[in-house]
Design brief:
Layout lengths: L4 E5 L9 H19 L7 H7 L5 E3 L2 H16 L9 H6 L13 H9 L7 E3 L4 E3 L12 H15 L5 E5 L2 E5 L9 E3 L12 E3 L3 E7 L20 E8 L2 H13 L2 H11 L2 E6 L4 E3 L1 H4 L8
Antiparallel strand pairs: 1-5, 2-4, 3-4, 5-6, 6-9, 7-8, 9-10, 10-11, 11-12
Length: 296
């Protein structure tokens, strides 16, 4: 995934756990997710789907069934502001394994848009299959990292580690409590130069994911236009019971304009903090209801 991972966990002495073995288990789990869903790996299951002939019905792993189900749910709820089927577009802009020397032409973007889109997919979660309509490329980079965070936390739970904090590339989930009895506290990063108040989140059975352009520039595409999403929003942080959903919703809301993102967050009861380039901060009702606000 082009990033790093870390785990903090309370290791019960009675279990006699070997930390080296735990690291190997975590790395193996992450390697499996990459081999399943990475568009950077030419032999991944996702890349095989992208190369499949029109009409092919491809079998999905249990992991990919879960990711596709949530991806399509968020796509529908956001009218396509989140879309797992824009691999052609991300490839055009050089946001995948293929580099480009210049921005794509409007004609190229229009052609890629016509061959993309979540509504072209035929997903059968009961049979664990996905039909390739022809020439469509998946790109799960807006959700797979969040899923990986959840998967590692689940793996640790299976090993008896019910109190842990998992972080991959800035996306986090907390389970249980710290050994000192506190929850797993995480400070939300503020874009440099903006005088914003500190937002500290207690990840007790919660996850947080952030999307924006304040670190890497305008790298998130609007699936509806095919162009990078450039507007007053610079950072979106979503708090959710699972990191997969937080990741997808952060991506979707960062694509929308400010007013559209606010309306969507209120309608869908998403706990989100939205930061604008001018330093403005908006907290959704779902987030403020979770907060312990200190009096002025």
């Amino acid at each position: 995934m082009g990033t790093t991972w870390q785990v903090r966990a309370a290791l019960p002495a009675a279990l006699g756990l070997d930390t080296a073995r735990l690291r190997m288990l975590v790395q193996a789990r992450l390697d499996g997710i990459v081999q399943d869903m990475s568009h950077w790996e030419p032999q991944s299951n996702l890349s095989r789907f992208n190369r499949a002939h029109a009409g092919s019905v491809c079998a999905l792993s249990p992991d990919m069934v879960r990711v596709m189900a949530e991806a399509l749910s968020v796509a529908q709820a956001t009218d396509g502001a989140f879309d797992p089927a824009i691999g052609r577009l991300t490839d055009l802009w050089g946001l995948g394994p293929n580099t480009v020397s210049a921005p794509p032409t409007p004609g190229d973007i229009g052609h890629a848009l016509r061959g993309s889109g979540w509504t072209r997919l035929q997903f059968d979660p009961l049979r664990s299959t996905l039909r390739q309509p022809g020439g469509l490329w998946l790109d799960l980079s807006g959700i797979a990292k969040g899923f990986a965070v959840d998967a590692v936390a689940d793996l640790l739970g299976q090993q008896g580690l019910n109190h842990c904090l998992v972080e991959i590339g800035g996306e986090c989930v907390g389970r249980g409590m710290r050994p000192d009895g506190d929850p797993w506290w995480v400070d939300v990063e503020n874009p440099e130069g903006l005088p914003l108040p500190r937002l500290r989140v207690a990840l007790h059975g919660l996850a947080i994911a952030t999307s924006g352009d304040y670190l890497r520039g305008a790298h998130t595409l609007d699936p509806r236009t095919g162009y990078p999403a450039i507007h007053p929003i610079t950072a979106v942080s979503v708090v959710h019971p699972d990191c997969m959903s937080a990741d997808a919703w952060a991506t979707a809301l960062s694509v929308m304009g400010l007013s559209a993102a606010q309306r969507c967050a209120v309608r869908e009861h998403v706990a989100v903090r939205i930061v604008s380039r001018d330093g403005g901060e908006w907290l959704s009702p779902a987030l403020t209801s979770m907060m312990d606000l200190e009096p002025a």
